[in-house]
UniProtKB/TrEMBL annotation:
Segments crossing the lipid bilayer: 35-56
Name under which the protein is recorded: Polysaccharide chain length determinant N-terminal domain-containing protein
Main localisation: membrane
Positions in coiled-coil regions: 298-360
Subcellular location(s) per record: Cell membrane
UniProt cross-references to Pfam families, sorted A to Z: Wzz
Membrane topology according to the record: Multi-pass membrane protein
Alphabetically ordered keywords of this record: Cell membrane, Coiled coil, Membrane, Transmembrane, Transmembrane helix
All residue ranges annotated as the Polysaccharide chain length determinant N-terminal domain in the record: 26-112
Length: 728
């Protein structure tokens, strides 16, 4: 059964060579295949461009030069005034853009009266007058007035250029008349210079008027600023002092601050004396004489206490009940009581001194705060006054600058000069400047070459079929059993002989060079219809019939109602198969037509059909089955399981590779192995342009050999009509 696959045996050097040519010389090969198309496109483009260039009229160009002067004599604005400076090339480019403007073109048309020139304002033809109303309205709306149309025409033929390394502007105009070109170019220069002069004068006048308004407004602002300063002085009484010298309020604040510091020190000293006196008194001792300064009574009492103590010590030996001892003790206690009262009184005096120091400190602190507010207010008034004076000074300086600028603007408005001049007027040139016919033809040829290359590459990209056995093996991994040249009713005997040789090569690849053909049951399938499968089956059957073999052809791709009288496969399978086989001729072909699609009944999957195949294997030397398209009908897979080998037919360079790969994948998914692929319908003329060495290349190279040796046998003459019918 059909369960094996054969690998192609190719020379390594040939495979490497074809791979190299496929990847490296693909573009050159495409150009070689499509050189006729590329040549036709180039020739057509050259002919059309040559004809168009001959129909074009000669053009004449006149050129005038304008020099831009960037400097003007007289006083220039200083850098301190903040004037921005521009590069000379930028200024020259700006002037060139003015020359190219539509306004200058309209002035030229008006100055030369081009509306009355037939070259610019042709009379409408009869066809234009008979044109539809809405088209006429649309044309008027889009093109505008006659002056605008003429201005656009002038702008199209005008060329204004400037050199970044020089302050020159070139004004060139091109037309069919050299005198007209020179006249229009000079008119552009004159209109530009006149417009520049008018703009300069108008700008100076506008500037002077604006500056006059600014001077008047600034003078009024200065008067208002000076009046505001005087009102502020009268309201606040602020007088400007010398720079860096303190005013009266500041001096008073400084003196008050000094007195406040002294009062704080006095208060702290009083508090310290009071604290020491209290601590000493609380400890039972007598405060120091320094703390009690100004209390002489306490000093005398201290001396009396000392005296009383000595007296008490003197009489202490007499005993405590002695009258002298009691008197001395009473005298000591009286003196100590008087001392205590005096000390308390002195401490009270110290307390009064502290309160007096606190009051004095508070008064001085309040005075300092008041003086601070006065100083701050005075400083604010002085700052405001200085701000008003600075504003007035700025307004005064601006007024001075405006007066100077106004004087300059008035002077410029009175000057009637321009900063540009025409250093070379345009002259008529009798030598045509265009059109460059050689350039037009060359450019057309170059563009046509590119278009031809793109067309060739797109056609090669669009052609996704197999061109050679090497491409087929590389993409599918399946061997190519042969290539069948294309034949038709008008094919010569040599072409038919080449076709027969190709069929013989397919048979040899299948192993039919031996006495009994193997495989015995061969299925010929295709991915889609129109692949030359019927022609291949008929040719293979004829080749074996000529050898005297008995061949059964099962046409599984027949229509529901075939036009011929071939036996129906379904009737044979369901009837007496032995009787049918015995009635078949001992040699030659027997053709059965099968059915495909249109019914749920699958004849090829029945046991009866399997028995029929087994009997046919014994009765015939070869059973050739033509299967329906693999991608359209499932019967192809069922028939492949009954065959010993499967062939797949694919049209040369026509069947997309993805279609063939999909069909192979479907057969592989159903455990069907394809013995090989046959490329059909090979156009030898088209194939000759491919840089591939295969059997069809040699057929085309040695075509004359087949023509001279062609000989058609009687059996071939009988089968040729059937081949012609299948080829057509």
């Amino acid at each position: 059964m059909n369960r094996t696959v054969e690998q192609p045996s190719r020379g390594v050097s040939l495979l490497l060579r074809q791979t190299y040519e496929h990847h490296t010389l693909g573009l050159l090969t495409a150009l070689r295949r499509r050189w006729l198309l590329i040549g036709a496109i180039i020739a057509a483009a050259a002919a059309v461009s040559a004809g168009v260039s001959l129909l074009l009229s000669d053009k004449y160009t006149a050129e005038a030069l304008v020099q831009v002067e960037l400097g003007r004599p007289g006083p220039q604005p200083s850098a301190q005034a903040g004037t921005a400076t521009l590069e000379g090339s930028v200024i020259v480019e700006s002037e060139a853009r003015v020359l190219r403007s539509a306004f200058i073109a309209q002035r030229v048309a008006q100055d030369l009266g081009l509306e009355r020139d037939a070259a610019f304002a042709p009379r409408p033809s009869m066809l234009s007058r008979l044109w539809s109303y809405w088209v006429s309205r649309r044309e008027v709306t889009e093109t505008g007035t006659s002056a605008e149309r003429i201005a656009r025409e002038l702008s199209r033929n005008l060329k204004v250029t400037n050199d970044a390394r020089a302050y020159l502007i070139s004004v060139a105009y091109t037309s069919g008349d050299p005198d007209r070109s020179a006249r229009i170019a000079n008119a552009f220069v004159d209109a530009y210079m006149r417009n520049r002069l008018e703009i300069g004068v108008a700008s100076a006048e506008r500037t002077s008027a604006w500056l006059q308004e600014q001077v008047t407004a600034t003078r009024a602002s200065l008067d208002e600023a000076e009046a505001a300063i005087e009102r502020f002085r009268q309201r606040t009484g602020t007088v400007e002092g010398s720079a860096g010298a303190p005013n009266l309020a500041q001096q008073e604040l400084r003196d008050a601050t000094t007195r406040l510091g002294t009062a704080v020190q006095n208060r702290l000293a009083a508090e310290a004396r009071l604290a020491r006196a209290r601590d000493a008194f609380a400890a039972g001792s007598v405060p120091s004489a320094q703390d009690l300064a100004g209390a002489p009574v306490i000093q005398r009492l201290l001396e009396a206490v000392e005296t009383a103590n000595r007296d008490l010590q003197t009489v202490s030996a007499t005993g405590p009940r002695h009258p002298g001892y009691l008197t001395a003790k009473a005298s000591l206690e009286g003196v100590q009581e008087r001392l205590r009262r005096e000390i308390e009184q002195a401490i009270g005096n110290l307390e009064g001194d502290r309160r007096t120091a606190l009051q004095e400190e508070a008064l001085l602190a309040a005075q300092v705060e008041t003086l601070k507010k006065s100083v701050i207010e005075a400083m604010g008034h002085e700052t405001q006054l200085q701000g008003l004076q600075a504003s007035a000074a700025a307004i005064r300086e601006r007024l001075k600058l405006l007066n100077d600028s106004f004087a300059q603007a008035v002077a410029l408005a009175g000057m009637r000069s321009s900063t540009t001049q025409a250093i070379m007027p345009a002259q008529p040139d009798t030598v045509p400047s265009g059109p460059n016919r050689a350039f037009i033809v060359g450019l057309s040829v170059l563009a046509a070459s590119g278009a031809g290359l793109c067309a060739a590459i797109m056609l090669e990209r669009h052609s996704t079929g197999f061109r050679s056995p090497g491409d087929l093996v590389e993409d599918t991994g399946t061997r190519c059993l042969g290539m069948l040249p294309k034949i038709h009713r008008r094919s010569t005997a040599g072409e038919r002989r080449m076709f027969d040789e190709a069929i013989g090569l397919v048979g040899a690849s299948l192993g039919w060079s031996r006495t009994s053909p193997t495989p015995q049951i061969l299925l010929v399938a295709s991915a889609v219809p129109g692949e030359g499968k019927s022609l291949l089956c008929g040719a293979l059957a004829n080749a074996l019939t000529e050898r005297g073999l008995r061949v059964l052809v099962i046409d599984g791709n027949a229509d529901a109602d075939p036009p011929d009288d071939r036996a129906d496969l379904g009737s044979v399978v369901s009837g007496d198969v032995s009787m049918f086989l015995s009635a078949c001729p001992a040699a030659g072909q027997t053709v059965l037509r099968g059915r495909v699609g249109g019914s749920r009944y699958d004849l090829y999957a029945t046991p009866a059909f399997a028995r029929f195949i087994d009997l046919a294997r014994e009765a015939f030397d070869l059973v050739l089955i033509e299967a329906p398209p693999v991608l359209l009908f499932q019967e192809a897979v069922t028939l492949a399981h009954h065959a010993d080998a499967t062939l797949l037919a694919a049209r040369w360079k026509r069947t997309p590779r993805e279609v063939v790969l999909t069909a192979l994948q479907r057969l592989q998914d159903q455990t069907v192995r394809v013995r090989g692929i046959v490329l059909t319908e090979v156009d030898l003329k088209d194939h000759r342009r491919d840089r591939i060495i295969d059997q069809c290349t040699l057929y085309g190279r040695y075509r004359q050999l087949f023509e001279t040796r062609a000989a058609v046998s009687p059996l071939q003459r009988e089968t040729c009509p059937r081949l012609d019918a299948k080829a057509s």
